[in-house]
Design brief:
Elements lengths: L3 E7 L4 H15 L3 E6 L11 E9 L2 E2 L1 H14 L4 E6 L5 H4 L6 H10 L1 E7 L2 E2 L6 H10 L1 E2 L3 H17 L3
Parallel strand pairs: 1-2, 1-3, 3-5, 5-6
Antiparallel strand pairs: 3-4, 7-8
Helix pairs in contact: 1-6, 2-4
The chain binds flavin mononucleotide.
Length: 166
């Protein structure tokens, strides 16, 4: 039977949603049946063999949809293989080394039994609207996501799933 993986994301401006799509594409290339969904729209995780949950970072916290998804589904997630990712840094630090999740996310990860976590670079449109966002964008606007880094992480998950016989 084909392994079914849900890639759920919390994203405000779409760039984390796109990372979720890249992850799912890479998993499909490894023969895995991967669905991508906005974490705020997923009713439950029934039928999935594993879950990858990601969120954009805003003010040091995971996007609300990802946090709520984790809370809502904690009872099921604890029994499944789960991986977490964040997207945020508006510079090249995420490509240069491992960035640990913020403490609030570490707590969520232990509640859902997440195996590990990756931080990927973020994207912010230099022309973004909103007072705070445009102030951030003025200094750090741009696309810092590394598609190959994301795909390599997904391939590693595919290998781990195979290793644990999922
Ligand atoms: C107001 C604001 C606060 C942010 N706070 C953080 C942060 O605390 N840590 C971080 O790594 N990135 C932070 N970012 C960058 C975003 O996480 C980045 O733009 C991300 O790619 C957004 O994802 P989205 O397009 O899926 O919403 C912030 C961006 C804005 C506009």
């Amino acid at each position: 039977m084909t392994t079914r993986v849900l890639v759920a994301y919390g994203s405000k401006r779409g760039s984390t949603a796109e990372i979720a799509e890249w992850i799912a594409d890479a998993l499909r290339q490894e023969g895995i049946d991967a669905d991508v969904a906005d974490a705020g729209r997923v009713k439950d995780v029934t039928g999935y063999d594993a879950v990858i949950l990601g969120g954009a970072l805003y003010a040091g916290r995971w996007h609300r949809a990802a946090r709520r998804f984790a809370r809502r589904n904690a009872g099921e997630l604890i029994h499944l293989p789960v991986w977490a990712f964040s997207s945020g840094p508006l510079d090249h630090t995420a490509e240069e080394g491992v960035i640990e999740p913020p403490p609030s996310l570490t707590r969520i990860m232990s509640r859902i039994g997440a195996q590990s976590h990756a931080t990927f670079g973020g994207r912010l449109d230099p022309e973004v609207h909103g007072m705070i966002a445009s102030a951030v964008a003025k200094k750090q606007g741009g696309d810092y996501r590394d598609r190959e880094q994301v795909r390599a992480w997904a391939r590693e998950i595919a290998r781990e799933l195979a290793a644990i016989g999922v």
